[in-house]
Hints:
The chain is α/β, with parallel strands linked by helices.
Amino acid sequence: xxxxxxxxxxxxxxxxxxxxxxxxxxxxxxxxxxxxxxxxxxxxxxxxxxxxxxxxxxxxxxxxxxxxxxxxxxxxxxxxxxxxxxxxxxxxxxxxxxxxxxxxxxxxxxxxxxxxxxxxxxxxxxxxxxxxxxxxxxxxxxxxxxxxxxxxxxxxxxxxxxxxxxxxxxxxxxxxxxxxxxxxxxxxxxxxxxxxxxxxxxxxxxxxxxxxxxxxxxxxxxxxxxxxxxxxxxxxxxxxxxxxxxxxxxxxxx
Length: 254
């Protein structure tokens, strides 16, 4: 079993620093990406979960000491440059958990106020106070990526205690209670690559209990079988029920 609080402390120690009141984080790369119809992306180092199908495990999410130290201003400048050059209206921080040292990501969003900032988070760090800070920024859209459809699937995927599954649902609840509109300002993504039809229905019922609108806007995620992801899956003893090739074609592990 892996303790998310221990991982959080390690990221804070090795991949976050504060200098004269400015929060710095490590970043591995910046890129123009095709997701969301085109988006400027910054890949941040460090995460408080260890998902067994993570595409970024080699480069960022499992890492603690690689990449360059950047301030929110540095990140905003680079993302803005990519967005302007490509005509994108959206920016994001990906590759790791952006809400570790949340003031860093919030400041990036503030500096890029003319763009939609898509905040991809696993939700485990969103309490009512942070939810209010996120909801106060009209350019932020929060995508809560739920790992598995049930607490048992969450534990198998992340190797973290299953009670953290409920923190993801609580994150959605906090964000909606803070004033974010379901399916517009905040929505659930769901890794169903290890789920059965029955467990997927259980997730829909759990989301409906948070807000009846949420089951209508689930962004379903399947496992993408990049070669390095397949290696990780095999090392963890995971076999997906739903997977796609890097080209998006339905596929299965062999």
